[in-house]
């Protein structure tokens, strides 16, 4: 519930800030008459996200187990890719987001097209909506506790809407750079866990070699799927189910926060480690990068006039 709450809070606040910028700009230039078109686009984006969630939830029941695992693994990979791209996109374009959105509105208003404003509202929310739906669905498949995960996401989205409204009204101040830095780091860790579970699904479907397929590495001593170095490369990296039962609260917390499962294959561990190592490194480098601003005192806008030269 905590993991999905933070995910819903971050994604929802991104969408709320974008919509808030668009609404404020239209109000500032006196074009409140096109606000219904903007809200229509936002509504269509929400309907699309809910529709995708419904298809993913109820459409899998008619499939075989292998097909369900295959689709689940592929969609989880897509969710990881979208989350990763969105994290770095926000990190790169946050400083120019407002001018970019306002420029898009100006172009749409200049063309006087009904669908132009609708499209801006739709695109502004659809991206976060689809990303949230895919990530939430993948997390539910991983955690196996749909009610709590869904409740956490809904609470996060509700808090995001309230925060977005308060920010737009100037009633609360929030260090957005720090907020997105911390939640971005959290999402990197969550995405690593989703990636590990995607590998698990693909191994169960037979799309990747692993402990569930004929390619499993067998321990010559026990005759079973190997554990530890005896299971490298297509067996189990470790098996801690005796110490941490898979259905225990501790297992749920570890899986929701750092992507740890009591029993993980070598491919899962390698994918999780490589993802966090590579993406985490680039994410931290992006946080350390600062714009090179020139000191105002070094380049005065207007040179002072000599004292001896009075006004003629």
Task: State the share of residues found in helices, binned by percent.
Answer: 55-70%
Provide mean pLDDT, rounded.
Answer: 83
Class based on secondary structure composition and strand pairing: mainly alpha
Query: SSE order in H/E notation?
Result: HHHHHHHEHEH
Oligomer: single chain
Number of helices: 9
What value does the Rg take, in angstroms? 25 Å
User: Which range does the strand content fall in?
Assistant: under 5%
Please tell me about this protein's structure.
By secondary structure, the protein is mainly α. Helix content is 68%, strand content 2%. The protein is built from nine helices and two strands, in the order αααααααβαβα. It has helices at 2-28, 35-59, 65-93, 97-111, 114-143, 146-169, 176-204, 249-257, 266-288, and strands at residues 236-239, 263-265. Strands 1-2 form a two-stranded antiparallel ribbon. Helix 1 (2-28) crosses helix 4, helix 2 (35-59) runs parallel beside helix 5 and helix 7 runs antiparallel to helix 9 (266-288). It is elongated and about 80 Å long.
Strand and helix layout:
Blueprint: H1 2-28, H2 35-59, H3 65-93, H4 97-111, H5 114-143, H6 146-169, H7 176-204, E1 236-239, H8 249-257, E2 263-265, H9 266-288
Antiparallel strand pairs: 1-2
Helix pairs in contact: 1-4, 1-5, 1-6, 1-7, 2-5, 3-5, 3-7, 3-9, 5-6, 5-7, 7-9
């Amino acid at each position: 519930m905590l993991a999905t709450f933070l995910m819903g809070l971050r994604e929802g606040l991104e969408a709320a800030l974008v919509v808030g910028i668009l609404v404020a700009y239209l109000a500032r230039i006196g074009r409140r008459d096109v606000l219904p078109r903007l809200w229509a686009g936002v509504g269509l984006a929400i309907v699309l996200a809910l529709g995708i969630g419904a298809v993913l939830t109820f459409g899998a029941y008619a499939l075989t187990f292998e097909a369900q695992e295959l689709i689940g693994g592929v969609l989880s990979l897509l969710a990881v890719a979208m989350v990763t791209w969105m994290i770095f996109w926000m990190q790169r374009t946050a400083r120019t987001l407002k001018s970019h959105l306002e420029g898009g509105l100006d172009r749409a208003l200049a063309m006087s097209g009904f669908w132009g404003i609708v499209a801006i509202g739709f695109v502004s929310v659809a991206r976060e909506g689809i990303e949230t739906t895919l990530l939430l669905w993948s997390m539910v498949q991983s955690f196996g506790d749909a009610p709590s995960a869904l409740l956490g996401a809904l609470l996060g989205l509700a808090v995001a809407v309230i925060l977005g409204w308060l920010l737009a009204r100037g009633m609360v101040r929030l260090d957005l750079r720090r907020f997105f830095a911390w939640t971005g780091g959290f999402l990197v860790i969550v995405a690593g866990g989703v990636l590990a579970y995607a590998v698990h699904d693909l191994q169960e479907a037979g799309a990747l070699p692993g402990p569930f397929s004929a390619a499993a590495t067998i321990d010559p001593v026990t005759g079973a799927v190997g554990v530890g170095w005896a299971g490298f490369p297509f067996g189990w990296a470790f098996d801690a189910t005796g110490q941490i039962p898979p259905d225990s609260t501790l297992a749920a917390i570890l899986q929701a926060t750092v992507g740890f499962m009591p029993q993980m294959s070598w491919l899962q561990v390698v994918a999780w480690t490589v993802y966090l190592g590579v993406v985490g490194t680039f994410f931290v480098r992006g946080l350390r990068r600062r714009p090179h601003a020139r000191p105002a005192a070094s380049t005065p806008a207007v040179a002072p006039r000599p004292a001896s030269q009075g006004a003629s």
